[in-house]
């Protein structure tokens, strides 16, 4: 069976027709596309789009349908095994590689992120429960975290992977806390220090493994995806060592239902090098009691999944990016445009398909006496 016929058969099961008339049907510009897909999987799918071999009117819906169908995904699983084996054999998120995330991902230019993220400068999922736009959703997310931690004036908090400083600035102004933010991005450091100017907040260029001090509460928003399975327990033990006895830790992370899931190959190469999405099993093992002499690292008090909100967040980011492209294209070329569009819309489709999740997990150090009351 020829590659096109084989692909068409698999795609039909997802309601997708090559060169069809629906907005989610891909239009094929190069007939070698299907050979390329069966040879290269998800990496080939993304690179062929960047190369202009195919287009689709509604890319996010195409991906939604693709990732809701196990049969249609068969052509995209090529090449994942070596990547998974590599992540098992090597610590792809050690100290030296961790710095690469800052350099390759967050240091490409604040102008792009300012245009895409809007005033909040929050590069993580918004909370859309009662929000009608991106800014409201991002503020609701920040407030949700503050309420889950029960922040009060005088609390000292640590933000691991503080980004552009938006959470610390919000918490300091709204809840009267002081704090420390750490990041491995030099561009973020410069921006964040301006954001928190005049507040009792310090921004440090620091790896989480080097953090010191004692904090009433700790948060990590959208950074755990860069920690890696060989470092999850190290990360959690570090949090425990920094957390006060009656403090809370909130982990905000993208999650995957499959264990040992490295990022899809295209994302690993172009967007988040050496990224790894944790599973429920990964997170549980990072904090559990290994033997009768080993106390659990942290006690899980609440697990909140609102991954469907990431679809809305990504679509809002894409709308901002598309609107700002005329000003951005003087710095970034057409191939970058197709790459970034692909990243945002494919990610939206994956969350829409519930292939990916967004978790907020609240931990205590020794268990909250009388129980923790969840906040939504």
From TrEMBL:
<keyword id="KW-0489">Methyltransferase</keyword>
<protein>
    <submittedName>
        <fullName>Cyclopropane-fatty-acyl-phospholipid synthase</fullName>
    </submittedName>
</protein>
<keyword id="KW-0443">Lipid metabolism</keyword>
<dbReference type="InterPro" id="IPR029063">
    <property type="entry name" value="SAM-dependent_MTases_sf"/>
</dbReference>
<keyword id="KW-0808">Transferase</keyword>
<dbReference type="InterPro" id="IPR050723">
    <property type="entry name" value="CFA/CMAS"/>
</dbReference>
<comment type="similarity">
    <text>Belongs to the CFA/CMAS family.</text>
</comment>
<dbReference type="GO" id="GO:0008610">
    <property type="term" value="P:lipid biosynthetic process"/>
</dbReference>
<dbReference type="GO" id="GO:0032259">
    <property type="term" value="P:methylation"/>
</dbReference>
<dbReference type="GO" id="GO:0008168">
    <property type="term" value="F:methyltransferase activity"/>
</dbReference>
<keyword id="KW-0949">S-adenosyl-L-methionine</keyword>
<dbReference type="InterPro" id="IPR003333">
    <property type="entry name" value="CMAS"/>
</dbReference>
<dbReference type="Pfam" id="PF02353">
    <property type="entry name" value="CMAS"/>
</dbReference>
